[in-house]
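Show me a record, fold above all:
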Amino acid sequence: MPGKFTVLILGDIYGNPGIRALFVGLKSLKQSRKADLVVVNGENAADGLGIKVAQAEQLFSIGVDVITSGNHIWHHREINDMLNSKRPILRPANYPPGVPGKGYTFVDVKSQTVGVLNLQGRSQMQNIDCPFRTGKEIIRKMREKTNIIIIDFHAESTEEKESLSMYLDGQISALVGTHTHVQTSDEKILPGGTAYISDLGMTGPGESVIGSSKDISISRSLSQMPLKLEVSETSAIIEGVLLDIDIDSGRTLKIERIHQQSLV
């Protein structure tokens, strides 16, 4: 397909199973899908909560171009210096001024500049700054540099995710939801050319409760005790979407769901 740019975006990496799955399978997935850019949400990489510097560096070393995050990014303070660096690791842009890090970045690949923006929802989550107003203002600035813009909207509410995608339709190439760890089947391209899916799913242990040990999760529900969750050490799945984007217009031409059983 002439004049297209292909982006692979993968859902929340959960614990060591998710890291291992990408270490073993990302190169072949990227090659087979002819992806020009890889974006992953890494906010659950460190035992389900946050991400550590060594894990971020490992992801970059195996072919990840941009790491996005969400409400758990603050769990390990050691990541703050990396957030403040020029490395392409993001925290949600709509946190109040003064917090570490940046909410968007630009990546140059194959003579093409691509913008990636990270936002976080407010429904059933922290009452941070408005993702609609913040996103609109940042996109206005980003479009001065590129018309290919991807948003990772880390949010609980499908209503909020759908509303933001329609609010920004035609101004961005895609808005993908993260946070719930359950892949949805509502992928589509909106009238203005913006691709959408409510949740990418998870890159992490398949036999689990959204990444955690099923036995502990069941016990928490039965006992109502605050038992500490643990990552399920089972074979992983890799979930996300593949986007074909028209270089000239920035409109998405195709969105395809990825659901792949890992070899580990």
